[in-house]
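Recap from last week: sequence in, structure out.
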Amino acid sequence: MHTDDTHLNISSRVSIPLSEIELIAVRASGPGGQNVNKVSSAIHLRFSITESSLPDLYKQRLFKLQDKRITRAGVIIIKAQNYRDQEKNRADALERLKYLIQSVATTRKKRIATKPSKASQKRRVDSKKRHGQQKALRRKPFD
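Predicted structure tokens:
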């Protein structure tokens, strides 16, 4: 993970100060024996899109995302509890935030509509006819 002590690097030009990311240690749910009730090893990450120093393009695209981790108020909430170690969960939460933001950074290539070729259309119709004839042979003879 590319983080120094003060920033989470999203790309070569974009980084987020860690002061904008709220990390809260909470108790993990699920199995873990007696340890699960004592140790706060899971991490709740909260990141406000509107109050962040992200470029406007990133903010607009994040708001357009239909992602259940983004609230109506524009706060990204990530719960990391895959590991039993709090530091690993912290790194996992930051990595997941980074991937989410990177996913909106790339612009997708516009799809160019194409038509099937005449030959491929003919092959498709011929195969449909052959299949229909094969099924017709399975039927009982009609008087």
